[in-house]
Amino acid sequence: MSTLLSRRLALLGQGDHLSLLTQCLHGIEREGLRVDAQGQLAQTAHPRALGSALTHAQITTDYSEALLEFITATHRDVAHTLDELRDIHAFTASQLHDELLWSPSMPGLLPDEAQIPIARYGQSNQGRLKYVYRQGLAVRYSKTMQCIAGIHYNFSLPPALWTLLYGEQEAAAGSLGYIALIRNFRRYSWLLMYLFGASPALDKSFLRGAANDLQSLDADTAYLPWATSLRMSDLGYQNNAQSSLTPCYNSLDSYIASLRQAVSTPYPPYEAIGTQRDGEWLQLNTNLLQIENEYYSSIRPKRVTLPGERPLQALAARGVQYVEVRCLDINPYLPLGIDLAQAHFLDAFLLYCSLSDSPALTGNECPACQDNFQRVVKQGRQPGLQLQRQGQAIDLRSWAGELLDGIAECAALLDQAHGDDRHTRALASQRDKLADVSLTPSARLLDDLRNSGQSFRELALQLSRQHRQALRENALSADAQARFTALAEQSLADQAALEAQPQEDFAAYVAAFQASL
């Protein structure tokens, strides 16, 4: 364990400092495709009973119209976060009738590209801008990519903890701390892919006949034998334009500057497409990124935005408030896609990233971090897999064992603060996966596919039906059902009120939005 980590753990263990670790905040965003009873992508509009995808705070859509997104509030106790996520799932299950929420991250049988619906948000300029942005994503990455789902884990440490560690004013200390956390996350996030990756196989319809290095498991299923997360591989949400963006988070200012440049730098292939054709908008602009959130990263520094404020403006004005972990697959065996043990381990992992030495990423370390990550998502369970650490080869399991030893110290301190052993027990279950690779979700999924003789789409549909049944059997109370119904109705009224307001020319609205950075 490093000297700095030891010092910081000792400091946080002193007196009143220990209580700071009970003030972490947790939020979860879970995406999930709506599918019909046969597991095919739903062609229906966002269900009105769920409210407005534009104005509902907890139930919205992401890229495809069929891709639901559930958003919790933040809670100090992540168990309360998961309780809230369960309530959102239960309400949605009660309203989907003949449709289901797809259990894994990768979609099942997809229709032709043209038949995948893009999310719509109504006729207000705000709603139209969200639609055109997604139309741009379809042009740039394909609609197929807009059917991939994941889980985002939002995490913050209390401002007083950052001030204690860095001796700076609150905003400055928080930004320094979170950017350091992110650097270490980039160094070590391959471990999360080994432990929690759950997409080693996919439906062949996702590939659209493109060349790839996958193997056939059956007539409908492609896979890689040692893969952990094909979702996070080069088969997922990547493109040539984004591959040129490599912000390494050595400071908040450099991160903001790199994304500001990307949203203002023309990209010739996108210029060839243009922004409009026959009066229809194709994309918001022809730059490397339409907006800053188009940059697909495994973790983001975040700040809650004010009305009309863009994410980079919020970061520049008030610093980093929390981090959003974006690389987590949905665990298809869990109704919520994530459970309490995983959340407690994530807390210990993120605390380890926060307290450990985090020098600037220089030289070849940035590409080495990316190479390690990609090796693990495609080969992570391969015996003897070697990664790169400080220019030297190291066995994945050896390095993982060292990391878990350090994370164990953070887990123990979290348990001391909470007066129980929840984090230590969560870490022990991850050590089990390191000792026995068959316990990882990716290995379990491939074993079940092989042993059952089912295709990926068949097994996923079976799990989706099981989760729907479990959610419906644990129905919401009448009061909770009424509360969600009222939220849905209010969101519809809010959208109607927004659309009733005079709307300026949409081209002018887009131009003003673009100029706001």
Commentary on this structure:
The protein has 517 residues and is of the alpha+beta class. The chain has a single domain, classed as Creatine Kinase, Chain A, domain 2, CATH 3.30.590.20. It has helices spanning 3-12, 78-95, 125-141, 159-166, 170-188, 190-196, 240-243, 252-262, 268-273, 311-318, 340-355, 365-379, 396-418, 422-435, 441-452, 456-473, 478-500, 506-515; strands at 25-35, 59-61, 67-71, 100-101, 151-156, 201-203, 215-216, 221-223, 276-277, 280-281, 299-302, 322-328, 386-389, 392-395. Strands 1, 2, 3, 4, 5, 11 and 12 form a seven-stranded antiparallel beta sheet that branches. It has a three-stranded antiparallel beta sheet with strand order 6-8-7, with no helix packed on it. Strands 9-10 form a two-stranded antiparallel ribbon. α5 (170-188) crosses α11 (340-355) and α11 (340-355) crosses α13 (396-418). The longest helix is centred in the C-terminal third of the chain and has 23 residues, at 396-418. The model has no long low-confidence stretch (mean pLDDT 95).
